[in-house]
């Protein structure tokens, strides 16, 4: 069983601010678990209306005004403030269902919470929490979540590849760069689908682990750019560093499909791909796009264990 801490007292109130559909499903999970759950500017699934969500007792309550959410926070003995995954959008504001939310606008909610959660929590929020002695829980630093998210990410990445290609995954030759949680999950599923899989990994121990599963390996050393890559039909990059640079990309077949799941800016020279016509997709936030309910309930389960 996954145990995050040994607290005997459990959090009863959760205030969910912003976020995509994952946060909605997380809120539903928490409400089903008997918690008091309120959402503010959280994106809802297309088949759920605000009035429906507000009306039914077994659904989280949607709050339209930030002042009302602050009132609710004052009525609670303690509460967990749940921010998006990731917390900030490209504009540097908290991701909301209809535009960004300034961190300063939710300062009261932050500084009076007992526990603050989200992922890729910005330094400004960390600083506020530190100054007010508030516990911070970043979902993506929890190995249990990362491993479970790896499954959803792997399934989505392979789906992206299949949709972009005219050949089957079965019988294809696949290169996976990186052998962390996501790399392992991608390798395992590709092999189960009948693909010929090779992993490019930094550590010799990772190569050995892969080979024990029947997966070929190459060491990501200072000579990796000189290795042959023209036989691969698919390449899945999981490393957030420039691994697939021009020198490597030039060695791929012109028909290769590249799926890069590494966080911004990725690990592929996308400009070079555009220049020479290589097909690629920078697939970010896969769990939230393809399996938001599973991903959201996972976050809810982790929060329940945490608080």
Report on the structure:
With 307 residues, this protein is α/β, with parallel strands linked by helices. It folds into 2 domains: 129 residues, Rossmann fold (3-Layer(aba) Sandwich), CATH 3.40.50; 137 residues, Rossmann fold, CATH 3.40.50.720. The chain has 12 helices and 12 strands. The strands form 2 sheets. The chain has a 6-stranded parallel sheet, sandwiched between helices. α7 links the parallel β7 and β8. α6 packs across α7. The longest helix is centred in the middle third of the chain and has 22 residues. The N terminus is likely disordered.
SSE order and pairing:
Layout: E1 13-17, H1 21-32, E2 36-40, H2 50-55, E3 61-62, H3 66-75, E4 80-82, H4 107-111, E5 115-118, H5 123-131, E6 135-138, H6 143-164, E7 173-177, H7 181-192, E8 196-201, H8 204-212, E9 216-219, E10 234-237, H9 246-249, E11 257-260, H10 270-276, E12 279-282, H11 286-290, H12 292-306
Helix pairs in contact: 1-12, 6-7, 6-12
Low-confidence stretches: 1-8
Overall form: elongated
Q: Largest beta sheet, briefly?
A: 6 strands, parallel
Assess the beta-strand content as a share of residues. Answer: 15-25%
Could you provide a short overview of the structure?
This protein has 307 residues and is α/β, with parallel strands linked by helices.
């Amino acid at each position: 069983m996954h145990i995050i801490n040994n607290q005997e007292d459990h959090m009863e109130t959760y205030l969910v601010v912003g976020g995509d559909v994952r946060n909605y499903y997380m809120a539903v999970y928490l409400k089903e678990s008997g918690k008091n759950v309120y959402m503010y500017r959280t994106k809802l699934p297309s088949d759920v209306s605000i009035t429906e969500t507000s009306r039914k007792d077994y659904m989280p309550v949607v709050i339209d005004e930030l002042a009302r959410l602050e009132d609710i926070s004052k009525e609670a003995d303690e509460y967990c403030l749940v921010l998006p995954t990731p917390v900030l959008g490209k504009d540097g504001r908290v991701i909301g269902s209809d535009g960004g939310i300034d961190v300063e606008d939710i300062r009261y909610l932050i500084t009076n919470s007992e526990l603050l959660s989200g992922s890729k929590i910005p330094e400004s929020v960390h600083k506020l929490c530190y100054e007010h002695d508030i516990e911070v829980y970043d979902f993506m630093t929890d190995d249990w979540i990362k491993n479970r998210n790896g499954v959803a990410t792997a399934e989505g990445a392979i789906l992206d590849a299949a949709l972009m290609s005219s050949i089957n995954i079965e019988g294809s030759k696949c290169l996976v760069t990186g052998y962390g949680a996501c790399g392992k999950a991608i390798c395992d599923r590709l092999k189960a689908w009948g693909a010929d899989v090779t992993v490019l990994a930094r550590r010799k121990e990772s190569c050995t682990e892969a080979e024990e599963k029947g997966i070929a390996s190459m060491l990501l050393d200072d000579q990796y750019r000189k290795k042959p890559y023209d036989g691969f039909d698919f390449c899945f990059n999981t490393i957030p560093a420039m691994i697939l640079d021009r020198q490597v990309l030039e060695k791929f077949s012109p028909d290769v499909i590249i799926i890069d799941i590494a966080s911004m800016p990725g690990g592929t020279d996308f400009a070079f791909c555009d220049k020479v016509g290589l097909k690629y997709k920078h697939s970010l936030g896969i769990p939230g796009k393809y399996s938001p309910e599973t991903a959201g309930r996972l976050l809810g389960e982790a929060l329940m264990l945490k608080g």
